[in-house]
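Please decode residue identities from the backbone states below.
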């Protein structure tokens, strides 16, 4: 096959697609009581990543700044309830070449906690969608706390993909 004619990898559904950390998810699946759920706008892709549905944006492509909002509720649990991670309604806030991934604290309000920092480049415009591919995610201090200190502040997590209407 001629590499020039190879089809590009298919894009994920619209939203924020993230596998969190493959080794963590493999560990969860190895537990006798490991449980994973996705609801309220979050789904699990065919490749096992989570996709959070778009929920509005205030992103300015010319400046590369603003907020992309997503909705969904992903829960990962094990060890008879001693381990529980919840990713609720993530947002990405962009400013000056980087982004911050945050989640809702689940109190019904707008309180959020940062989970990680993103190293971003300008998105590509693909068929009417802005697409950020293979965005590096480094866990933040509060993200480390979310995972009970299993990952140190600054440690690399799996990259994510963002696809939202342009």
């Amino acid at each position: 096959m001629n590499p020039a004619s190879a089809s590009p990898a298919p894009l994920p559904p619209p939203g924020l697609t993230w596998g969190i950390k493959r080794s963590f998810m493999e560990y969860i699946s190895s537990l006798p009581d490991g449980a994973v759920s996705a609801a309220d706008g979050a789904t699990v892709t065919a490749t096992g990543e989570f996709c959070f549905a778009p929920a509005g944006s205030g992103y300015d492509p010319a400046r590369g700044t603003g907020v992309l909002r997503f909705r969904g509720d992903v829960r990962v649990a094990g060890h008879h309830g001693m381990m529980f991670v919840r990713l609720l309604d993530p947002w990405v806030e962009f400013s000056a070449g980087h982004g911050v991934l945050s989640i809702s604290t689940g109190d019904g309000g707008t309180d959020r906690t940062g989970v990680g920092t993103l190293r971003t480049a300008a998105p590509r415009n693909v068929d009417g969608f802005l697409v950020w591919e293979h965005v590096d995610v480094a866990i933040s201090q509060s993200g480390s706390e979310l995972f009970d200190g299993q990952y140190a502040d600054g440690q690399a997590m799996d990259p994510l993909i963002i696809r939202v209407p342009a």
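Observation: The chain is about 10% helix and 45% strand.
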